Structure formats: structure tokens, C-alpha cells
Amino acid sequence: MPDVRRQPCVVSFAGQLAFLAVLLASCAGGPSGSPGTVVAAPPGSTPVVQNDQGPLPPPKVAASVAPAMADGFGPEILLPREDAKDDEVARVGDLVLRQSHAFTRLLSANPNLALSAVDLLIFDVLVARHAEQFGVRVSEARVLELAASEERELRRQVKAELAGVSFADYVWRLFGMREQDWQSALRLRTAQRLYQGYVLRYLSLREDRVQVRFLVHKDRKVAQEVVDKVRVGADFATLALRWSEDASRRDGGLLPAFGHGFQHPAATRAFDLKKGDVSEPFEAQWGGEQRWFVIYCLEHRPGRDLPFEAVRDEIDADLERMPVTPLETSAYTMRWRNEEEAEARDSGK
After folding, report:
1. How is 96-131 classified by DSSP, letter by letter?
2. CB neighbours (10 Å) of residue 78?
3. Is 240 exposed, middle or buried (0-12, 13-18, 19+ CB in 10 A)?
4. Which of 70, 98, 209, 280 has the largest count of CB atoms under 10 Å?
């Protein structure tokens, strides 16, 4: 089963700046006519490669264009278009390179990244189905608000860090898109992220949940020491920050509230604890090896069978406080794929 925690690489702004600096440096090139010199080209045109014999016919790269978005931002924006074609992405002489070629090449060069794209497609299909089932819809006004905020912040950073580079040049060189197409892609991506957050948190809200902090360590003595200290009044979050070997230590080992189907070692003990209880150390697989876990119960939350519109604002606030984590997407995908596979097996009997 694909591991949906392998999310596609998200490049930080600092990484984007470094990448853009390399592009700008390469475009500056050496003296005109030197081997391999790339002559800078404005957005929308193609760089020309030169050698001592003069210009060579350059590859023609198709500009990235944002997919068309249905009116009203319905859940179908998460799904691949039924009439999707294997579009051309580049042309070298008479040879046409298509999207399927790019994926095949990526699969051989970086299998994890290629498979993560497949995982994301599966995740989006599950989200779209649940959005249709439970009447989950994103607000166009909310999409535009969030997208505009993200664009303003990116423009501010480009202006502050890349003197002399226009925003249009930045978008073209980094994303291969014209500014207007990038803005459309940003709105689409924002709407898709909203659907993902809305569906995961709404389904979670409908069932009985528990919220905990957890600590994981390879040494049982350390885990037991944490338990002993918490039981005499020590703060679990502080101890998790100090001792946990998981990245969640930065948040004091905090997990999002989860239901019984959550795929995590903490879920095996969490529902047996009362608010303020700490578990005894227990062993479980983590990162490919046995580790010792300790769970601290923050609260139990009863499920609420309410329409999405009644809790939309609550979920928006919840997502602002704690965005969806890769752990949530992984647990969601594994749970619902397993249920669909079980239904398929049962129907085949």
C-alpha cells in the first residue's frame, strides 16, 4: 500500500530563492558565443543556446497553464478530468515529449516522488467522495481571501530578497508560468487544500475523539522517568520537548484529536485514559524499530452529528490553529482505503 506520508516536495521560500539565484546566474552566462551559454529570455519566450558555430535550435518548453476550474469550486476540482489528454510538455526538434514521458522519467529517477504523486491522487479522490457524501463545500470568498493573502506575502518576500527581479520574472523562472496562470493555479491549490482540511476535520468531528500528547524514546528508563515525573505534577509537554525522539516534540508531542480508526500507536491506549491520565510505557513499532511510548490524555470529545455548514467556522478556526498534518492524511487514506477494499472483498463473495 502506498505510504501517503510521502507528500510531494514543498520548496521553502529560501529554497526557491536559492534555485532562482542559480537560474539567474546561468542566464547571465559567460561571454556571448562561449560553449553552452544560455541567453536570458523574457517570460513567454525560450532561451537560446549558443556555441562557437552560432545559435542552436533550442528545445521548446510548453508554458505551464493552470487546469480549468469548475464554477463554484465544487469537489470535482480534486479529481482528474475525464477528458484529460496526454498533453505535450516540450519538443526537441521533431520529438514531442508528453506528460506520460515526464512521469515515466520521474519514476525511474525518483520513484518516491513519483509514487507520492499517485498517493496524492488517491487521497484527493477519497476527499472528493466524502465531500459529495456529506455536502462539504468550500466558499469562493474564503478561497480568494486565502489565495490573496498568500500572494501578498510572496510578493513581499520577493521584493525584500530579490532586488531587481520582477514578480512576473520570479513566477516564470521558478514555476514556468505566466503570472495570470500562476494566480489561477494558486486559487485552485487553495481550494483543494481547503477541501482536504474540511473533510478530514469534519469526519473527525462527527465521531468520538480523544486528544493526547505523546512521547517516544528508545530507552524504557527514560519513558518511565517521564511517567513518574508527570504523576507528581511535571508538565508533559515540557518533558516531551526535552526527551521525545519524534518531530512532534516541538509541539510538546501534541496530536490532532482523533477517532478509533486513527493509525498511530497512541490510538491503541488513548481511549482507555481519562483526562489528565498518563499511560505506562509501552512498546510499538516506530520508524522501523521498536520504541517506547508514553501517552498523556488532554480530553475526550463526543462526536457531533451536525451538518457541515453548522461547523464550518469552527473548522476554519481549527485549521488556522493547527493545519492538517501528513500524519492525518496518512491515517485518513489508510483507513478509508482499507474500508473500501474490505467492502470490495465482501461484495465479491
Report:
1. EEEHHHHHHHHHHH-HHHHHHHHHHHHHHHHHHHHH
2. 22
3. buried
4. 209
Residue 79: burial class (beta carbons within 10 Å; 0-12, 13-18, 19+): middle
Distance between alpha carbon 220 and the CA centroid of its chain, in Å? 33
Verdict on whether the full-model pTM lies above 0.85:
no
Q: In sequence order, what are the beta bridge partners of 91? A: 60, 96
Considering only CA atoms, which of 242, 226, 221, 240 is closest in space to residue 278?
Answer: 226
Q: Report the 3 state secondary structure along 127-181.
A: HHHHHHHHCCCCCHHHHHHHHHHHHHHHHHHHHHHCCCCCHHHHHHHHHCECHHH
Q: CA 28, CA 38: separation in Å to the nearest integer? A: 8
Where are the extended beta strands (E) located within the chain? 37-39, 48-51, 54-56, 60-61, 88-92, 95-98, 209-217, 282-286, 289-301
Distances (CA, A) of 11 to 7, 174, 175, 325: 12, 11, 11, 17
**Location of C-alpha cell 465531500:** 131
pLDDT digits (tens, 9 = 90+) for 112-129: 999 888 888 889 999 999
Grid cell listed for 319: 485549521
- pLDDT below 70 — which residues of the chain? 1-58, 61-72, 340-345, 348-349
Residue that has been written with the C-alpha cell 526535552 in this structure: 242
Summarize pLDDT for 269-316 with one digit per residue, the tens.
999 999 999 999 999 998 889 999 999 999 999 999 999 999 999 999
Handedness of CA 106, 107, 112, 116 (dihedral sign): positive
Would residue 253 be called left, alpha or beta, if left means φ above 0 and alpha means ψ between -120 and 50 degrees? left
Q: Range(s) for CATH 3.10.50.40 in the chain?
A: 207-303
- Residue 169 to residue 68: CA distance in whole angstroms: 23
